[in-house]
Specification:
By secondary structure, this protein is an alpha/beta fold. The protein has 18 helices and 14 strands. The strands form three sheets. A six-stranded mixed β-sheet has the order 8-7-6-9-11-10, sandwiched between helices. GO terms for molecular function: exopolyphosphatase activity.
C-alpha cells in the first residue's frame, strides 16, 4: 500500500520595492521554507514620483505589468498564505491608493504599506534566517530604491531598527538627474547620506557588532563588480575595493556610459548612487569590509507569515509591550475581551468573520483603555492615535489603522468619518466589530470582578437585539439605552430587551 502525504503549505510574498518588485514562493517544511519560485523585476517605482510625490501613469503601468506576470503564482493560494507589502515609494506617494486599487483588482490579494521600521524588522528576519549559522551581533544594511534600512541584532532578535530616507533611485534623481557623474556630485551624495546617518551613528556604534552584512541587490552588485575586477571575493565588499569602484564610476562621466563586468545593464543607471551611499556607510561606521547575504525583505515576510496566529506572532508581542508600557488595567481588558468573544459566538452564523478579524476584535478589547495613560478626556481618541502612530512590530499601516479605528469607535458617537477612511471592502465588517466592542464595553462599564456573559445577542441582517439575562440594573440599562441611541444615529438598529 502506498501512503499519501498531505501537500505542504505553500506561501507567497511580494515586495513592492522602490527600485525592484520581488516575488518569493515557498513550501513550509517543518519550521523552514523550501523555495519553489523566485522572480524579480526592475520597476523603478520611485523614478515615477514627481516633485509633489505623485506617481505618474508610466510608473503605474510598469508596476501593473510586473504584477500581471506575478499573478499566476498566486492563483491557487489562500488569502492567509499570501502577503504583499509596499515600501518607501508607496509610503511617499500621495496617490498610492489609485495604484493599490488597480493592483488589487488585478492580483486578487490585498496590498499593505509597511512603515520603515517594520520594513527593517522584516529585512532582519530574512537575513537572520539566511545567516542562522553565524553567532554574535550583526549589523544588517539594506540599500533600497527609496530608503536604506539599518538593523543591529543577535540571532533572530533585532536590537535596533532604523529606516533612513536615502536610496539608489532617489539619490540618482537628486544628485545625478541629468546623467552626469562628477567628483563633486559623488561627494554631494555621500555628504547627504552622512547627514542622514548622523542621527544613528553614535547609538549604533555604542551597541556595536561583530559582523557587518549587506542584504540588498545594490550591495550584491557592488560585491560582484569588485570580484570581477580582482578587488576581492564575490560575496565581500572591502573599503579598498569600494574606493577603486568609486574612481572607475567617476571616470565613466555619464550614467549611460556605466558598463562594468559583473554589473547588469538594468542596474547601471542607479549604480553610482548606490555606491555613494555605501561609501558613506563605510565612512560613518568605520567599516573595512561587509559581506553579502541573500536573505531579504521577501524572505522575512514569509517567515513572519509562518508565525502569524501562533505563539510566535510578533504582533501579539508588540501589543503586550504596549499594554505594559501604558499600564492598561488587564482585568478590565480581559473582561471586555471575554464579553466580545461571547457576543461574537452568538452572531457568528449571521455575521461571519475570519480568524484574523476576530483576533483584531480581541486585541482592540484588550487595548480599548490605552488612551487613559494620556488623559481620561477623549481617551478613545488618544488610544486610537497611539495605535495608529506607534511602531508596532508585525503590523502594516492598514492593520494599525483598522485596530485604531476599533479603539476609536468603542465609546461615544460612532465615528463615521474614520469608518469611511477604511478600505471599502472592510467597512461593513469593521462596523460590525466596533458595534460588538461597544456593547462589551457598556456591559462591563461597572468594572465587575468577572466578565458579563449573562446576555444573549441576535442579529437579523445589521439589526441587533440584546437580551439581558440578569435582573434589571438601572445604571446598566441607562448605558445600553444611550448606546442604542448612538447606534441609531449612525444608522444601525439596536434593541435592548430585559
Amino acid at each position: 500500500m502506498s501512503s499519501r502525504h498531505p501537500a505542504p503549505r505553500r506561501l507567497a510574498a511580494i515586495d513592492l520595492g522602490s527600485n525592484s518588485f520581488h516575488l518569493l514562493v515557498a513550501n513550509q517544511v517543518g519550521g523552514d521554507l523550501q523555495v519553489v519560485a523566485k522572480q524579480g523585476e526592475k520597476v523603478q517605482l520611485a523614478a515615477g514620483l514627481d516633485d509633489d510625490d505623485l506617481l505618474d501613469e508610466a510608473a503605474m503601468e510598469r508596476a501593473l505589468a510586473c504584477l500581471e506576470r506575478f499573478a499566476p503564482y498566486l492563483s491557487d493560494l489562500d488569502a492567509g498564505d499570501v502577503r504583499i507589502v509596499g515600501t518607501n515609494a508607496l509610503r511617499a506617494a500621495h496617490n498610492r491608493q489609485t495604484l493599490i486599487d488597480r493592483a488589487e483588482a488585478l492580483i486578487g490579494h490585498p496590498i499593505e504599506i509597511i512603515a520603515g521600521r517594520e520594513e527593517a524588522r522584516l529585512i532582519y528576519l530574512g537575513a537572520a534566517h539566511a545567516l542562522a549559522e553565524v553567532h554574535g551581533r550583526r549589523l544588517i544594511v539594506d540599500i533600497g530604491g527609496g530608503s536604506t534600512e539599518f538593523i543591529i541584532g543577535e540571532r533572530f532578535e533585532p536590537l535596533a531598527l532604523e529606516s533612513l530616507h536615502m536610496g539608489c533611485v532617489a539619490y540618482t534623481q537628486r544628485f545625478f538627474h541629468d546623467g552626469t557623474i562628477t567628483e563633486r556630485r559623488f561627494r554631494d551624495a555621500e555628504l547627504a547620506a552622512l547627514s542622514e546617518l548622523a542621527n544613528i551613528r553614535r547609538p549604533y556604534q555604542a551597541l556595536g557588532w561583530q559582523d557587518p552584512v549587506g542584504s540588498s541587490g545594490t550591495i550584491k552588485a557592488i560585491a560582484a563588480v569588485q570580484a570581477a575586477y580582482g578587488d576581492g571575493p564575490e560575496d565581500i565588499v572591502t573599503r579598498q575595493g569600494l574606493m577603486a569602484l568609486r574612481r572607475r564610476l567617476i571616470k565613466c562621466k555619464r550614467l549611460d556610459k556605466v558598463s562594468m563586468t559583473g554589473l547588469k545593464s538594468d542596474r547601471a543607471r542607479v549604480f553610482p548612487a548606490g555606491v555613494a551611499i555605501l561609501c558613506a556607510i563605510f565612512d560613518a561606521f568605520d567599516l573595512e569590509r561587509m559581506r553579502y547575504s541573500d536573505g531579504a525583505l521577501r524572505d522575512g515576510v514569509l517567515y513572519d507569515l509562518l508565525g502569524r496566529n501562533t505563539a510566535e506572532d510578533s504582533r501579539a508581542s508588540a501589543l503586550l509591550t504596549l499594554r505594559r508600557r501604558f499600564d492598561v488595567d488587564m482585568r478590565q481588558a480581559s473582561n471586555v475581551r471575554a464579553t466580545t468573544e461571547h457576543l461574537c459566538a452568538h452572531v457568528a452564523d449571521v455575521w461571519p468573520m475570519s480568524q484574523e478579524q476576530r483576533q483584531f476584535l480581541s486585541w482592540a478589547a484588550e487595548l480599548h483603555e490605552i488612551g487613559l495613560a494620556i488623559s481620561h478626556s477623549q481617551f478613545h481618541r488618544h488610544g486610537a492615535y497611539l495605535l495608529e502612530n506607534s511602531d508596532l512590530a508585525g503590523f502594516s499601516r492598514p492593520e494599525q489603522q483598522a485596530l485604531a479605528f476599533l479603539v476609536r469607535a468603542h465609546r461615544r458617537k460612532f465615528p463615521g468619518k474614520e469608518l469611511d477612511a477604511l478600505p471599502a471592502a472592510t467597512r461593513s465588517t469593521y462596523a460590525r466589530l466596533a458595534r460588538l466592542l461597544r456593547l462589551a464595553v457598556a456591559l462591563n462599564h461597572s468594572r465587575p470582578e468577572q466578565p458579563t456573559l449573562d446576555v444573549r445577542l441576535e442579529a437579523d441582517g445589521d439589526a441587533l437585539r440584546l437580551t439581558l439575562g440578569q435582573a434589571e440594573q438601572p445604571l446598566l440599562m441607562a448605558d445600553l439605552e444611550q448606546e442604542a441611541r448612538y447606534q441609531r444615529s449612525a444608522g444601525f438598529s439596536l434593541v435592548i430587551d430585559t
